[in-house]
Amino acid sequence: MPELPEVETVCRGLNQLTFGQTIWGGEVLLPRTLAYPVSIEEFLQQIKNATFGQWQRRGKYLLVPLEENKGWLGVHLRMTGQLLWVTKDKPLSRHTRLRLFCDRSQELRFVDIRTFGKVWWVRPNQPPETIITGLQKLGPEPFSKAFSLDYFINKLKGRQRNIKTILLDQAVVAGIGNIYADEALFKSGIRPTTLGKELSQPQVKRLREAMIEVLTTAIEQGGTTFSDFRGVTGINGNYSGVAWVYGRHNQPCRVCGTPIERIKLGGRSSHFCPQCQPLGNKK
Q: Residue of 27, 189, 264, 270 with fewest CB within 10 Å of its CB?
C-alpha cells in the first residue's frame, strides 16, 4: 500500500501538472470506485467545468478543492491505486477505473488493479471529513508540531502492543505504513517486537527523530516502487535502493553485515537486524 512518501510524491506531482486545469468531463469505468456520491451521473455533473486547486495530503488521503465553488475531490489509493496524468490518446489499461478529461487533450486516470481505491466528491462549504469519515480518525502528521516528543511519549505510555503495530495505527500518527515503520525502527535500534510501554524516553526520542528522517529521505527519493506504485507520470520511486531493512530478508545489514531477518507481526512482515536491533534494546 502506498504510504506517506508515495502519497506525498503523487500530491506534489499533481500540483505541478493539474493545478489550474479544468475538468471538462469524465468517465467512471468501475462504479464502486465512487465512495460518494454513488450516482455516476451526479458525480460527473458536479465536477464538470470545475478547476483543480492545490492538492493536499492528509495521512494517506489526497484532497483537492475544486474552484468555482465546486466542492472537493478526495482520493485514497489503498493497495494498488495510481493517479496518472496522460494524454487522451494513450491506450487504456484494463485496470482503469475513472477518467477525468482536462485541458489540452490531457486526462487524469485512476488505475487500480485490486479495486480497493476510492474517490469522493464533497459538496461546497462542507468539511471533507464529514463525507470522508476516515479523516476523522487520523492522528497528527509526522512533520507537524502536534507530533511532539511529549505527545509520542504519552501515546506509548503503558501500551501493551508491540511498537511496530503501534506505528501502523493511523490514530497514533498519520501516514506511516509497513515499509517506513521497519526503516525507522532500524534507524533507532529498536526491535519491532518491543512493547510500547518498554521504551525509555531516550528511545522514544530516537524513534521520533528516525521516523522524520526516514520519511524525509523517502520523499526525496520519490517513494518506494513496490507492487504497482508509480508517480503521476509513471516514474518509479527510488527509495528501495537505499532501504536499510525493508525487503532485504537474508541480505547483509548495511551497518554490521548480519543477515536481515523477517517475522510476522499482526499479519504483516517485519524486517530487522538482530544485531543492530537486539532484544531488550540494549544497543
A: 264
* Predicted model pTM: 0.92
91 catalytic, yes or no? no
Helices (H), the chain: 4-18, 40-47, 149-156, 163-167, 178-187, 201-220
Q: Which candidate in 129, 268, 274, 278 is catalytic?
A: 268
2 as an active site residue: the answer is yes
Among 3, 8, 107, 183, which one carries the catalytic annotation? 3
Q: CA 230 to CA 184: how far, in whole Å? A: 23
Q: Is the dihedral of CA 77, 85, 128, 60 positive or negative?
A: positive
What digits encode the pLDDT tens for the residues 177-216? Answer: 999 999 999 999 999 999 999 999 999 999 999 999 999 9
pLDDT per position as a tens digit, 242-282:
889 999 999 999 999 999 999 999 899 999 999 999 987 54
Is residue 3 part of the annotated active site? The answer reads yes
One-letter amino acid for residue 160 of the chain? Q
The catalytic residue among 2, 65, 140, 192 is: 2
Q: Nine-digit cell at 18?
A: 493539474
User: Do 101 and 22 form a contact (C-beta atoms < 8 A)?
Assistant: no
